[in-house]
Design brief:
This protein is α/β, with parallel strands linked by helices. It has four domains: about 280 residues, Spore Coat Polysaccharide Biosynthesis Protein SpsA, Chain A (Alpha-Beta Complex); about 100 residues, no CATH class; about 170 residues, Rossmann fold; about 190 residues, 3-Layer(aba) Sandwich (Rossmann fold), CATH 3.40.50. The chain has an eight-stranded mixed β-sheet, with helices on both faces. It has a seven-stranded parallel β-sheet with strand order 11-10-9-12-13-14-15, sandwiched between helices. Strand 1, helix 1 and strand 2 form a beta-alpha-beta unit. The protein is globular and about 90 Å long. Bound molecules: [cytidine-5'-phosphate] glycerylphosphoric acid ester. [cytidine-5'-phosphate] glycerylphosphoric acid ester (C2G) binds next to loops.
Length: about 750
């Protein structure tokens, strides 16, 4: 029998996946021991599994993984014991394969391999099945690069293979190099782990091998060191897969390592100390462990010493690491490369200057190497200038730096803030606009391309920053900076921390968003609903500007008709027809590349021309993420492609009906109280699979959900009747989402942010 010990510390959301993985194991002779440490036993959940798997739960007071694993081991009655974290899950054949190998070679320990994923189990399995199906059709998913970067069979890899099978077994190609982010490319993850292994219980007991309960982190290291040191036979099977889940929400649901923080020097050193205490000084395990410490010293500690100006910090760390390294065998130090040897010498000589010089030179070498070898060379140089030059130069107190939709247009709230600032405070500020293509602007402003040197210069030096999306990850918030984040829409689609599973976005999306939004000083919210969502989904607790959207002021202006005439003149849209604006959003799952999305037109514009051409024209407006520029030349005079037109608010003004889908455009358009139709041909997929919505579209939207072009045509032909059916719903909708809009949002936001800051 195999006893599977699962430490549990309240992570209910994950435990189900873990237990499903156990219940579906091909090898049935198992006992699962869930050990709740410092939290209530999840009895209800455990009971649900009692008839599917032999399962028990015990509770302990201590709140540590080591204590939980030990308690589990004490309860275990199997021949073998296996440790599984409750946020991970096993492939169904995992235990079967390892048990077979353990018996075949009479091993004290057998290891499988770790596959990293960001997905919950059902999505993971779906992806694997898709791949296997593709594989059957001759597809090839093996990816050498991914393979090199993963720390699969991390344990075996770290300890070498002297007691096991050939290196091939451990480093063989990965079968499931699949899914955009399914398998992490990070190498740095803790590489010594008991996960993905099974151990002979009698062997552990005879040698009194347990987890050190003093250690909150890295207790696997001493445990494994002892196992390998004492084991008679160790073997590995790459086919046995342990699925390790990365946590994409390190803020609310951090993994143990994510709580350790960046500077976990003390934790690592303690774990090293305990590990060396009980192993053979002259043995191979000690040799490898020491090399690992030397690596840690050269790649992390030395650069940290170089970068950290804090003398006390250095003083504490240098002697500690020196003592460890001095106690090492000469042969170990001789075995490392020249650079490490020199660093060790500087450390032993207590020559701080030399140590910093060496590390600095290495850093420069790595940087140049990366520059030569990696793409985006120019970007790296500019980023370097940003970090090391522009952000050290004085802040330009009168400069306002503005960007809308990543520099793709002169539009949205930043546009209106810019114009109003010029009206309210003529000559007080200088302006820099991020714009991919030069525009004629109504007021003087410098224009820089996104990611040009000028862009980085003003990103680094401008006092005021006004963006409607996120700024780059490496943005440095400077003392004196005022960051006004206008955002770009009332949310229908779930945002950041409200999204349970980030399937399409980068798995680091939540973490990055969290870091980026820490720099914001003000966030614009158009209604109470948005305020509530932003506070929670962005974990944002700084001031909200609750006046409505600056970009919507124009929709409340007294001279709307006059403006509309001018816009029609400017765009050349024929005036003898009414205007339908079709403005759909983007689809997360249809993309070419990062930020470049596909759009396939489902609306039959030819049919629309045939049926509505005498009375209407259509403005086709795709989302700014859409890379496809739809060719509608054969519908000239009926369809106008306005996808590259700067400001959608101007298109709202000239249109009589809006057709959209899940885009936030409808919250804004409602300010005009004009009719809206929702062309939601893929509603179920979009809502349930891709995103998840905040509101019930069927109940709350002030217009019908339609699924075919025929239905759209029919509704347009009877638009008055259709609209009449939504009068009450429209009123409620308007009240909830447009209630704050009074045409003065821009002015009010400016007063808050720039108001009392006269110089
Ligand atoms: N937009 C546009 N043309 C479209 C769609 C959108 O100009 N065809 C503009 C509108 O100003 C809209 C904004 O882009 O309000 C955001 O677009 P959404 O379709 O709502 O999608 P997204 O960019 O994902 O933002 O909280 C808002 C959400 O984050 C949605």
């Amino acid at each position: 029998m195999i006893s599977v010990v699962v430490p549990y510390h309240g992570e209910q959301v994950y435990l189900k996946d873990c237990l499903d993985g156990m219940a579906e194991q091909v090898y049935k002779d198992i006992e699962v021991i869930v050990v709740a440490s410092g939290v209530d036993i999840p009895e209800e959940l455990i009971n649900e599994y009692k008839n599917r798997v032999n399962i028990n739960c015990i509770g302990i007071e201590a709140e540590s993984v080591s204590a939980a694993r030990n308690a589990g081991m004490d309860k275990a009655s199997g021949d073998y014991v296996c440790f599984v974290d409750c946020d991970d899950y096993l492939d169904v054949k995992f235990l079967d394969k390892l048990k077979a190998m353990a018996e075949q070679s009479d091993c004290d320990m057998v290891f499988g391999r770790i596959i990293h994923t960001w997905y919950r189990r059902d999505i993971y399995l779906e992806k694997v099945n898709e791949l296997e199906a593709d594989d059957d059709e001759g597809g090839n998913y093996e990816d050498e690069d991914e393979d090199k970067d993963s720390d699969e069979t991390a344990t075996g890899y770290f300890f070498g293979v002297e007691k096991g099978d050939s290196e091939e077994v451990i480093r063989d190609k990965k079968k499931y190099a699949c899914g955009r982010y399914m398998i992490s490319k990070r190498k740095k993850y803790n590489t010594v782990t008991v996960l993905s292994c099974i151990f002979k219980l009698s062997f552990l007991k005879e040698n009194n091998i347990r987890f050190d309960e003093e250690l909150l982190y890295y207790s696997d290291v001493p445990f494994l060191c002892r196992v390998i040191d004492k084991a008679y036979s160790v073997d590995g099977d790459k086919e046995a897969e342990y699925i390790k889940r990365y946590h994409n929400d390190p803020i609310h649901l951090p993994s143990l390592l994510q709580t350790a923080g960046k500077d976990d020097f003390n934790n690592k050193i303690r774990s090293y100390d305990i590990a060396v205490r009980d192993i053979d000084r002259a043995g191979n395990v000690r040799f490898r462990l020491d090399r690992k410490l030397l690596h840690y010293f050269s790649t992390e500690i030395a650069p940290a010493i170089r970068k950290n100006e804090d003398k006390a910090w250095r003083k504490k760390r240098m002697p500690v690491i020196r003592e460890k390294i001095m106690a090492m065998d000469d042969a170990t130090i001789k075995s490392v490369g020249r650079y490490k040897k020199k660093l060790v010498k500087a450390l032993i000589d207590d020559d701080l200057k030399k140590l910093c010089k060496l590390s600095g030179r290495r850093n420069l070498r790595n940087w140049i190497r990366a520059l030569i070898l990696k793409p985006k060379r120019g970007m790296r140089i500019k980023e370097y200038l940003y970090r090391h030059r522009f952000t050290s130069q004085p802040v330009l107190d009168n400069v306002v730096f503005l960007e809308s939709f990543f520099g793709k247009s002169y539009s949205d709230s930043p546009k209106y803030i810019f114009e109003k600032l010029n009206e309210m405070y003529p000559g007080r500020f200088e302006y820099v606009w991020v714009l991919d293509k030069k525009r004629k602007l109504p007021y003087p402003a410098k224009q820089v391309k996104r990611f040009s040197v000028g862009y980085f210069k003003y990103l680094g030096r401008s006092k005021y920053i006004v963006f409607n999306s996120r700024q780059p990850k490496y943005f440095v918030k400077r003392k004196g900076n005022v960051f006004l984040e206008t955002w770009h829409g009332t949310p229908l689609k779930k945002l950041v921390f409200d999204i349970e599973e980030v399937v399409s976005a980068s798995p680091t999306y939540k973490r990055n968003f969290y870091i980026q939004s820490r720099s914001w000083d003000y966030l614009v919210s158009a209604n109470g609903f948005s305020s509530e969502v932003f506070r929670r989904a962005f974990v944002y607790d700084k001031p909200l500007l609750e006046f409505g959207y600056p970009r919507n002021d124009i929709l409340h202006s007294d001279n709307k008709e006059e403006l509309a005439e001018k816009i029609k003149d400017k765009t050349g849209i024929r005036k003898d027809r009414k205007v339908i604006l079709y403005a759909p959003t983007w689809r997360d799952d249809e993309y070419y590349d990062h930020g470049k999305y596909k759009f396939s037109l489902h609306l039959d514009l030819k049919l629309m021309k045939e049926k509505l051409g005498d009375e209407y024209v259509v403005l086709l407006r795709t989302h700014y993420f859409i890379a496809d520029y739809l060719d509608v030349r054969d519908l000239d005079g009926f369809v106008y492609n306005m996808s590259r037109y700067d400001d959608i608010a101007e298109l709202y003004l000239i249109s009589d009906i809006l057709v959209t889908d899940y885009s936030s455009v409808f919250f804004d358009y409602a300010n005009l109280r004009r009719p809206m139709l929702f062309y939601t041909y893929d509603l179920d997929k979009y809502r349930d699979v891709i995103r998840g919505f905040y509101i019930d579209m069927k109940k709350e939207l002030p217009g019908p959900l339609l699924f075919t072009t025929e239905e759209i045509i029919d509704s347009i032909k009877n638009i008055e009747e259709v609209s009449a059916g939504y009068t009450d719903v429209y009123d409620t909708f308007y009240e909830k989402y447009c209630g704050w809009e009074d045409g003065h949002a821009t002015e009010n936001c400016i007063k808050e942010v720039f108001g009392n800051k006269e110089k």
